[in-house]
Amino acid sequence: MNENGDLEERKLLGSGGYAIAKITEEEETKANLGIPQLFLANAGRISEERFLKYYCNKCGKEYDGSPDIKFENPNEDLGQGMILVEKGEYKCKNCNSIIAFYRTFNK
Questions:
Q1: What DSSP character marks residue 58?
Q2: Which residue, among 98, 91, 99, 102, has the nearest Cα to 45 in the 3D structure?
Q3: Which of 27, 64, 79, 94 has CA atoms 20 to 30 A from the CA of 3?
Q4: Could you tell me if 10 and 36 are in contact, meaning their C-beta atoms sit under 8 angstroms apart?
Q5: Class of residue 83 by CB neighbours under 10 A (exposed 0-12, middle 13-18, buried 19+)
């Protein structure tokens, strides 16, 4: 979040549903793959308090608030100077189905 708290409400797609969250311009840039949709996996980890709601494909329902966010920091060297810094997933709080996976890398 920047100094002014400029966050935009956006729909972010995942393989198991979608989420509506307030994201920064930098997160929006990461989530954009050059097509009209934004992707939750590319945005990385977004703090729970910035989620407004999410939709689970398995439940077929929309829920208020944030999905569960599970993550770990393996700091795994993948070779050629690439390090897996964090890997995580967004999961439905009702059925535990995965809404989206994400990975964060460092070079």
A1: T
A2: 102
A3: 64
A4: no
A5: middle
Least confident of 15-24, 37-46, 74-83: 74-83
DSSP 48: G
Q: What is the mean pLDDT of residues 2-15?
A: 81
Give yes or no for a contact between 45 and 90, defined as CB atoms under 8 angstroms apart. Answer: no
Structure confidence by residue, pLDDT tens digits, 47-61: 999 999 999 999 999
**19 and 55 Cβ atoms separated by less than 8 Å:** yes
Which distant-in-sequence residues (6+ apart) come within 8 Å of 107 by Cβ? 81, 82, 83
Which residues, other chains included, contact 62 with Cβ-Cβ below 8 Å and sequence gap of 6+?
A: 53, 54, 55
